[in-house]
Description:
Layout: H1 10-30, E1 37-44, E2 48-49, E3 65-71, E4 76-85, E5 92-104, E6 107-108, E7 114-115, E8 124-126, E9 130-133, E10 137-141, E11 146-153, E12 161-163, E13 170-173, E14 187-189, E15 192-193, E16 195-203, E17 207-213, H2 215-218, H3 230-239, E18 247-251, H4 268-277, E19 282-288, H5 291-294, H6 300-323, E20 327-331, H7 344-358, E21 365-367, H8 369-373, E22 374-375, E23 378-382, H9 396-405, E24 430-432, E25 443-450, E26 454-461, E27 467-476, E28 479-486, E29 493-501, E30 504-512
Helix pairs in contact: 3-9, 4-6, 6-7
Amino acid sequence: xxxxxxxxxxxxxxxxxxxxxxxxxxxxxxxxxxxxxxxxxxxxxxxxxxxxxxxxxxxxxxxxxxxxxxxxxxxxxxxxxxxxxxxxxxxxxxxxxxxxxxxxxxxxxxxxxxxxxxxxxxxxxxxxxxxxxxxxxxxxxxxxxxxxxxxxxxxxxxxxxxxxxxxxxxxxxxxxxxxxxxxxxxxxxxxxxxxxxxxxxxxxxxxxxxxxxxxxxxxxxxxxxxxxxxxxxxxxxxxxxxxxxxxxxxxxxxxxxxxxxxxxxxxxxxxxxxxxxxxxxxxxxxxxxxxxxxxxxxxxxxxxxxxxxxxxxxxxxxxxxxxxxxxxxxxxxxxxxxxxxxxxxxxxxxxxxxxxxxxxxxxxxxxxxxxxxxxxxxxxxxxxxxxxxxxxxxxxxxxxxxxxxxxxxxxxxxxxxxxxxxxxxxxxxxxxxxxxxxxxxxxxxxxxxxxxxxxxxxxxxxxxxxxxxxxxxxxxxxxxxxxxxxxxxxxxxxxxxxxxxxxxxxxxxxxxxx
Length: 514
């Protein structure tokens, strides 16, 4: 049975081992161990018809081999892979498909290489408009493992189903070389084709959160092969928390996607059932989509009509999620002044939509990304340096802030706040973000935001509750602040940092891993 092995970064391996141990200890302490297991989504790429400009480069897929790399969120002891040909009009044929642990740069750990089967057969044809799931195989993987899915194609249609915004390099090799250890001589392309998802057999306590989004969720502005989109950052943060170590994160973002009509790919309304409710083990839903609909607004009448239609769509999502037994959270639309989308009417529409998202009782909770990312001096803009020059998409700094700001209590039985652990203070006045990187060695960055002029204290405690560092203290003006914690003089372990300000107390845990 293949198991997780080192693929380059030793600190990542240690992180995964600690998470696995954490899971075992948590399961034992809560009675989860031995209570069975079920399928849970751990990775997903929302399928669409690939635009001609994003089709595979020569030599193409037909009668050639394609190796694609994905990073899962949670682990399990068995897995199965989902494939899609839903947006193609002709059939696609796989001669054989393999899965293996990735060693980086397209290479695989050949000792882990396994052939997938489909109804017991190595080859399969997926009709145009169709999709299928491989037979389950025993294949133990730990969280945040990179897997290589290698397909030896037979026929491939001209119109290809895939996911253009992979932000991950794929490798095309001539002929059927599905078991090859390296990718010497490969042609590269930063897109995914035909792969749709991976489910793992995980403890009965495990579940996943599915995120409906556009290019901001899909990761435009993140680092190619860096796996640092905001859902990735959130996943790492959840894994490092003993209360949320078994929560899978499913990213269904599509670049240029709209909720209502137009845009790229199937609309949010049309794909909600498949991409969100169709996930295995989905217990929570995040809706963070609407900016591309709002960006088309250019009159007061259109602002009212679009806001009304978006709210109606959100209400439909809420009804469907609740009928599915899932909680659903709304994320506010971030500011975009500085982008061509911005005008007084689109801003009016954004404000109306955000007010509805924030109103208690509409969604089960609000994740206020607008509050996290806006410039206190001009709330129609994102603050520098957390966005690209287009004024719409965050960069890696912004994605760290977004992913680190989501309240872990949303994914536990605790009462969630959406963005913060507030005990007093004005609602929305304070934000304490998850440190990044996390785990870290030896330096990490902690960000916090305050909405009023007040005295603040930011302190670090060790696992025994001993105060070991004062990171920030004194009177602060409204704004966002960033401090560094250097753990060079401290041992590996969990630490807690706590912010107090004007009656507010917020705390988060972090993992120093040497």
